[in-house]
Amino acid sequence: MTTQLLFYERAVPVTAKAHRDLSIRTGQTYRFAEKVNSVPLTAIEFSAAAAHYPIVFAGTAEKVMPVVILGVKDAENFYVDAEGKWTGGYIPAFVRRYPFVFATDQDSKNFILYVDETFEGCNRNGKGERLFDADGTQTQYLQNILRFLQEYQGQFRRTEAYCKRLMDLELLQPMQAQFNLADGARRSLSGFMAINREKLRKLGDADLRAMFDTDELECTFLHLHSMRHFNDMLGKLASPAAEAPDTAPEVASDEPVPETEEA
């Protein structure tokens, strides 16, 4: 399981010159996400996401980030239906921000707003929301997008700090989920990490207090609680003609962790 730029294909800087007549129509389709089996998550989203999806951690030996699991195979998203509708109970901010994304300039000091022009909601026909007025002034819609992405970046940095603490405390371990279906078939998902409960129990008072004061302890419990949703995926794996599976997925800690790229 890897997280990459995912559904961004041709993101270009937003400018009044290039996009004065561009309109964006969002919320009509999530077909762009139908072939991703996980997306990044920020810590502030744990409460909403944990009610619907497994939350795990993915990355490298140097850096990890939380992700929500959306499917078992690489190009599989259980929560986008044939009509492109999102069927899950919560839509992650990483998905909601599309087709927009921030990227840093060459000096890595300033963020620049980009838009993926391949998004099917982009048009020059006035359908949806304009980015600029006729005189090139930013619309309220564009200002709201900028504010949303600024807040997202702030939450992303706080999430990085949370993940660094988990790594510094050596609380994460590689995991693998194995699904045994009723018809005898076997599916597995690997390349992610979860918090080791035993190591969490052994944390000292000072570390626990620091995690409590920053709401990181709450995120940790939400992550652990969300793992039950691997059970829900058994039903989604079963074919319509198959008998409903009645065995829970096995979770083992014997898999290496893949490299991860960020948007």
Concise account of the structure shown:
This protein has 263 residues and is of the alpha+beta class. Helices cover 29% and strands 21% of the residues. It has one domain (11-252).
Shape designation? globular
Number of strands: 12
The fraction of residues in strands falls at 15-25%
Average pLDDT metric: 86
- Sheet with the most strands: spatial strand order: 1-7-6
Which value, in Å, is the CA radius of gyration?
20 Å
Instruction: Give the number of helices.
Output: 8
Q: Structural class per helix/strand content?
A: alpha+beta
Give a short account of the largest sheet.
Answer: 3 strands, antiparallel
Report the order of strands and helices: EHEEHEEHEEEEHEEHHHHE
Describe the structure.
The protein is of the alpha+beta class and 263 residues long. It has one domain (11-252). The protein has helices at 16-19, 46-49, 93-96, 140-168, 197-201, 205-213, 216-226, 229-237; strands at residues 11-13, 23-24, 38-40, 55-59, 64-69, 100-104, 111-116, 122-123, 129-130, 172-180, 186-195, 250-252. It has a three-stranded antiparallel β-sheet, with helices on one face. Strand 6 and strand 7 form a beta hairpin.
What's the layout of helices and strands?
Layout: E1 11-13, H1 16-19, E2 23-24, E3 38-40, H2 46-49, E4 55-59, E5 64-69, H3 93-96, E6 100-104, E7 111-116, E8 122-123, E9 129-130, H4 140-168, E10 172-180, E11 186-195, H5 197-201, H6 205-213, H7 216-226, H8 229-237, E12 250-252
Antiparallel strand pairs: 1-7, 2-8, 2-9, 3-5, 4-5, 6-7, 10-11, 10-12
